[in-house]
Amino acid sequence: MDLDRWNGEACTSGTGNKNDTNVVELELVGTHIRIAQDAHSQNCGTTCWDASLVLAKYIERNLSSSLVGKCVVELGSGISGLPGMACALLGASHVLLTDIDGPVLDLLRTNVARNVSTAHVSINGSGLHSRLTRTPAVAELRWGAEPDIDGVCESLPADIDYVLSADCVYNEAAVGKLAGTIKRLLERRGKRTTKVLVCNEYRSDSVRIERVDIARHCSTLLDITRHCWT
């Protein structure tokens, strides 16, 4: 798939000053989204990466009638949580966006409040085509940390229907932790119909989510990567 097709649906604005916080703008489920990012940070989590946009648009185009009333958990949401935002705008009853604490979660909370809070949508009228019923929740989840996994599982009002992951792994060391966290979430709060959607920009054959243990606990483990980056 031609990446320019996806990039053409979003634009980045900024002054070019290294102290400037850039803004990524796009239309998602009939809603104008403005994502604040710090592209000059040394933290890769403070940038809105292409795979997040790709997965969000995949969800908008392919799952528009499948998300009403569903429970969704996004791992490694970064500062945008765009895939989770898409699910919330399509009517998911509970969306939990997760990442490590610090500047990443701070910016994520800001972007949620500015774009997909029920108060924001009702005030600015930009989401007239959306089915947003509840503001997405934001929580810390360190991969492999059992206290964090336990906290997330206990906070969910229902078992998980969708697990999302967009451009979360850059090296082999992170793959096992991400796969292990998905497996634990599915063991604790998954069900046979749970779907796991993964989208990563291709960087290396060695950086792939291991499928075997995860696939045993869900109905679908869909690697969007192959559909959108080849």
Which tags fit this structure?
230 residues; 9 strands; alpha/beta; 9 helices; 36% helix; globular; 6-stranded parallel β-sheet; 3-stranded antiparallel β-sheet; disordered N terminus
Structural class: alpha/beta
| Main sheet: strands, sense, barrel | 6 strands, parallel
In round numbers, the mean pLDDT is 81
What is the number of E strands?
Answer: 9
| N/C terminus separation | 6 Å
Supply Rg.
Answer: 16 Å
Brief write-up:
With 230 residues, this protein is α/β, with parallel strands linked by helices.
Describe the structure.
The protein is of the alpha/beta class. The chain is 36% helix and 20% strand. It contains 9 helices and 9 strands. It has helices spanning 3-7, 50-62, 82-89, 103-115, 118-124, 146-155, 172-189, 212-215, 224-228; strands at residues 10-13, 22-28, 31-37, 71-75, 94-99, 137-140, 162-166, 195-199, 220-223. The strands form 2 sheets. The chain has a 6-stranded parallel beta sheet. It has a 3-stranded antiparallel beta sheet with strand order 1-2-3. The N and C termini lie close together (6 Å).
Per-chain topology:
Elements: H1 3-7, E1 10-13, E2 22-28, E3 31-37, H2 50-62, E4 71-75, H3 82-89, E5 94-99, H4 103-115, H5 118-124, E6 137-140, H6 146-155, E7 162-166, H7 172-189, E8 195-199, H8 212-215, E9 220-223, H9 224-228
Helix pairs in contact: 2-3
